[in-house]
Amino acid sequence: MFKSRSAWFSSSVSQECRTFWIQQGGTIAGWRGADYLFSEDAACADTLRIFESKCFLRDKVTVFHSLFLTTCEGRQSFKSVCIGHYVLPPASVQDEVRHVVGRLIWESEDESSEAECSQDEFTEGDKSRSKCVIQW
């Protein structure tokens, strides 16, 4: 599922998520060179360092909630899961996001409410970003 893709994992992400990534053909990399960045906690020290980095401030990297991987595992596919719904904003922004969109997807108690979108809906708007965002 993740062959030829690399990821960085925050210390807040469970070992099970990392193991799933590797079992599905993904590799582990440093955050500056990874295709994906995963965290479960925007306030975790390693995630905060990314949010404070020039790369993040210049919109060169995006951090995703690791629930994306759990959802991919459940669906046995990543193409049917809209990764854009799993963007993990800095903690200081999360209340504003909740005000606009309601609960963040990882806060949802009803898994059936997870939004879906096609691969094209994600990639068209984000292809120009750095390699820290998924490249198809």
UniProtKB/TrEMBL annotation:
It comes from the Eukaryota. Coiled coil: none annotated. GO terms for biological process: homologous chromosome pairing at meiosis; meiotic attachment of telomere to nuclear envelope. GO terms for cellular component: nuclear inner membrane. InterPro entries: TERB2 (IPR028065). Transmembrane segments: none annotated. Pfam families: TERB2 (PF15101). This is Telomere repeats-binding bouquet formation protein 2. It comes from Solea senegalensis (Senegalese sole).
